[in-house]
Write a structure and sequence with these properties.
Keywords: ATP-binding, DNA-binding, Nucleotide-binding, Phosphoprotein, Transcription, Transcription regulation. The chain is an alpha/beta fold. Helices cover about 50% and strands about 10% of the residues. The protein has 3 domains: about 120 residues, Response regulator (Rossmann fold, 3-Layer(aba) Sandwich), CATH 3.40.50.2300; about 180 residues, 3-Layer(aba) Sandwich (Rossmann fold); about 140 residues, Helicase, Ruva Protein, domain 3, CATH 1.10.8. The longest helix is centred in the N-terminal third of the chain and has 50 residues.
Length: about 475
């Protein structure tokens, strides 16, 4: 038995009852025993007692009377009464007055007793934690509020439409101008485009530019969870609504009340769920699962998809009435391959953020790295670009960011882009010798790009002498580079 266990005081004038309770509780609790109220009070004064388990029938003072005294002197202790009488008026009258947590009848069952005391120990822990948090809040409240306000200002500056990363001639300028126009009104906006193009970032910027900027911004990926779970997440539920619903849960629609909700991948929802979603948008109310009546909600809905919803409507996969509800304004977000002028700016920002978070010195991306990045098609868009930057920073030797540390697929794209003759590989035209020559030329060029045109390192990697490498460069016209 250690003092780390919750302290329980058993108050009972019958020694056999004391011993039985002690044997039942000693593995899970640090048990103290007392035969009278006076003895119990002495123990309470010197020991850390979290739970008081008291018999009702004792000489001199009843259990309820003693627990009233405990409530006044040691209000944090959780109080439990045991009685052999099912209709004790004293107990019934004293439960609220003495703040009694539980009323147990004799003969008690060990499993029930242990379950009750474990619950009491958890209540004591929660009370103590709540008191500590309340004290911390009183002490640190002003500082925390200032920090939260400062952090909010940083977020608003970072995600403001006029500061989103883009070049002066970027196609994103037209997107941001349109978002600025629609931000003033509660018009439903549908953002379309490939995955990884930054639709959630734009939705957040739209929220921060709207009159709802000081209210919550809530996000949910509709394609990541099945219908039943998605319904409970968005609508919430009442305790007992289904197996495992042990307490009420506030849904994301209600959490976003007054603000905005971003429904990503809305095209992945089923027609059955779309009916429920349509009612929320039409009626402005949401009914938690198991609730007797709906709750009003006032929010702005911003949806996003990488699917062609108009084609899905024609095919019957997406409800037409829901489509027109969410797509009052449809904005197509261009993929990264259509914004080559933005790639260097975004990549450099990722580099700065990564190095700063790691406490490393800032670095500028070299021309060789930027040429490789802009030559690649980026099917994964901005998300893939970020991963390439992380890879390059992680593999850098002596802190130097090199093109050689980019993924092979990015380097291959750079080699093809920089040497049009190597495009023969994509079509595989010509006889066997022509194809092999094209393949060999591409391999040689990739090696040179990786080693920043250091012929000694490239020759070593390819298993060639410098003279042999020079001959191949001349043969394939690579020496002109």
């Amino acid at each position: 038995m250690t003092s780390e266990l919750p302290g329980v005081l058993v108050v009972d004038d019958e020694l056999r009852s004391q011993e039985a309770l002690h044997r039942t509780l000693e593995e899970d609790f640090n048990v103290f025993t007392a035969s009278s109220a006076a003895e119990a009070a002495e123990i309470m004064a010197r020991e850390w007692i979290q739970i008081v388990l008291c018999d009702q029938r004792m000489p001199g003072v009843s259990g309820v009377q003693f627990l009233r005294e405990v409530r006044d002197k040691w209000p944090d202790a959780v109080r439990i009464i045991i009685s052999g009488y099912t209709e004790s008026e004293d107990i019934i009258a004293g439960i609220n007055e003495a703040g009694i947590y539980q009323y147990l009848l004799k003969p008690w069952q060990p499993e029930q007793l242990l379950l009750t005391l474990r619950g009491a120990a958890e209540i004591y822990r929660l009370q103590t934690e709540n008191q500590r948090l309340s004290l911390d809040l009183k002490v640190t409240g002003p500082v925390m509020r200032q920090r939260v306000a400062s952090k909010r200002q940083v977020i608003e500056r970072k995600f403001a439409l006029d500061t989103l990363l883009r070049a002066p001639d970027s196609p994103m300028n037209a997107v941001c101008e349109l978002l600025c126009k629609v931000a003033r009104l509660d018009v439903p906006v549908l953002l379309t485009g490939e995955s990884g193009t930054g639709k959630e970032l734009l939705a957040r910027a739209l929220h921060l530019a709207s009159p709802r900027r000081s209210e919550p911004f809530v996000t949910e990926n509709c394609g990541a969870v099945p219908d039943q779970l998605l319904e409970s997440e968005l609508f919430g539920y009442k305790r007992g609504a289904f197996t495992g619903a042990y307490e009420d849960r506030v849904g994301l629609f209600k959490q976003a009340d007054g603000g905005s909700i971003f429904l990503d991948e809305i095209g992945e929802t089923t027609p059955a769920f779309q009916v429920k979603l349509l009612r929320v948008l039409q009626e402005g109310e949401v009914r938690p699962i198991g609730a007797p009546r709906p709750l009003p909600v006032d929010l702005r809905v911003v949806a996003a998809t990488n699917r062609d919803l108009e084609a899905d409507v024609r095919a019957g996969r997406f409800r037409e009435d829901l489509y027109y509800r969410i797509a009052a304004i449809t904005i197509q977000v261009p993929p990264l391959r259509e914004r080559p002028m933005d790639i260097g700016l975004i990549a450099q920002t990722f580099v700065d953020e990564t190095l700063s978070a790691a406490g490393l010195a800032p670095q500028r991306l070299g021309h060789d790295v930027l040429s490789c990045l802009t030559a690649y098609r980026w099917p994964g868009n901005v998300r893939e670009l970020r991963n390439e930057v992380l890879r390059m920073v992680a593999l850098a030797d002596d802190g130097e960011l090199r093109a050689a540390d980019l993924s092979p697929r990015v380097l291959r794209a750079a080699a093809v882009e920089q040497e049009p003759a190597l495009e023969l590989l994509s079509g595989l035209d010509g006889d066997l010798k022509t194809r092999l020559d094209a393949l060999e030329a591409r391999i040689v060029r990739e090696s040179l790009v990786r080693h920043r045109w250091n012929k000694t390192h490239a020759a070593r990697e390819l298993g060639l002498s410098r003279v042999g490498l020079r001959n191949k460069l001349t043969r394939y016209g690579l020496d002109k580079d």
